[in-house]
Amino acid sequence: MPGKPQPVRKAVLPVAGMGTRFLPATKAVPKEMLPVVDKPVVQYAVEEAREAGIEQFIFVTGRGKGIIEDHFDHAYELEALLSEREKAGELNSLLEDLPVTGAVSFTRQQKPLGLGHAVWCARHLVGEEPFAVLLPDDLLVGEPGGLAQMMEAYNRVGGGVIVAAEEKPLEEVKRYGVITPGKIDGNAVEVKAVIEKPEPAKAPSRLCIIGRYILQPEIFGELDRQEPGAGGEIQLTDSMARLIGRVPFHAVRTACARYDCGDRLGFLQANLALALRRPDIAPELRRLLAEIGP
Ligand code: G1P
Questions:
Q1: Rg (alpha carbons) of the chain, rounded to whole number
Q2: How many CB atoms lie within 10 A of CB 130?
Q3: Which of 207, 141, 36 is nearest to 149 (CA)?
Q4: Per the domain annotation, does 213 fall within a domain?
Q5: What is the pLDDT of residue 1?
Q6: Measured CA angle at 38 (ends 134, 99), to 5 deg
Q7: Protein residue with least CA distance to atom 7, ligand 1
Q8: Is any ligand 1 atom within 6 A of the Cβ of residue 261?
Q9: Would you say the CB of residue 222 lies under 6 angstroms from ligand 1?
């Protein structure tokens, strides 16, 4: 039985991406702030992380992303107005959503050089401890949440690197990091190799990384000297590949539905799926959808 690994207290949320798959909506509004039902995409990732025991949230932002900071802060005028109008329900839910003072930090990725570079930008805020990475575009819906399921596997297999993964159709693997799977242990599978965005003919499997990671601080040493890879970007996958053999490395098939909110259709699907789970909205929405027809 492996010993208990070091707890994961910090999460990095890369939110500097320009949202080029979602124009013109994302010209002036960060894609992470688009609402799924009535909550911005990024808030789902923060809640998922919080549920998994994360205490520190590190956002890697960029120019034009300032309203993400505002979203995780007090909105005094609004709070005063809600309190004046005796809208206690709305006010309390806003206050409950607020992170604890000092639990949120922001750093900037000054150039769009890739996901690996975005994570590297957080190196001083993370320091020498394991940490999670959540890509907010990937909205995971499940109970417990995606990261909590990964934490359970992390503790079971003895720590190391954990990525979330799911099978994709072969023609889609070129959009993802793809895994060479090894031994299976419950919902975890050993990762023997990873490759970023392979052509289908060269893909080692159809098991693709989706946007959740538990990483070890050794990754920063690799990112320090990481050369650009697929698409000319500094790829997190390439640096993770170099940790294979040095730390345990597993992929977890979460029992979650995953929606790609950086994509128009994925975003619409997320909105419908989550609205249909909401008792206050679902009956009326079903009626409206029937009205639209097939
Ligand atoms: C990134 C990662 C890729 C991963 C994907 C999941 O790609 O580089 O390995 O499979 O997220 O969404 P991106 O979507 O930034 O191109």
A1: 20
A2: 23
A3: 141
A4: yes
A5: 52
A6: 50
A7: 176
A8: no
A9: no
Q: For ligand 1, is residue 114 a contact (CB within 6 Å)?
A: no
Total residue length of the chain: 294
Distance 263 CA to ligand 1 centre (A): 13
Distance CA 178, CA 189 (A): 13
Distance 166 CA to ligand 1 centre (A): 12
* Residue 125 structure tokens: 């805020």
Atom of ligand 1 nearest to the CA of 176: 10
Structural domain contains residue 252: yes
Instruction: Establish if 202 belongs to a structural domain.
Output: yes
Q: By C-alpha distance, which of 231, 220, 44 is closest to 142?
A: 44
253-265: pLDDT as tens digits: 999 999 999 999 9
The count of other CB atoms within 10 Å of the CB of residue 249 is 23
What is the per-residue pLDDT across 92-137, written as a single tens digit (0 to 9) for each? 999 998 999 999 999 999 999 999 999 999 999 999 999 999 999 9
Ligand 1 pocket check for 138: Cβ under 6 Å:
yes
Give me ligand 1 centre to Cα 120, in Å.
16
Mean pLDDT of the chain: 95
pLDDT in tens, 163-182: 999 999 999 999 999 999 99
* pLDDT given for residue 34 in this prediction: 96
Confidence band, pLDDT 50/70/90 cuts, at residue 19: confident
User: How many distinct structural domains can be found in the chain?
Assistant: 1
What is the domain range of residue 250? 10-292
Q: At 278, which CATH number? A: 3.90.550.10
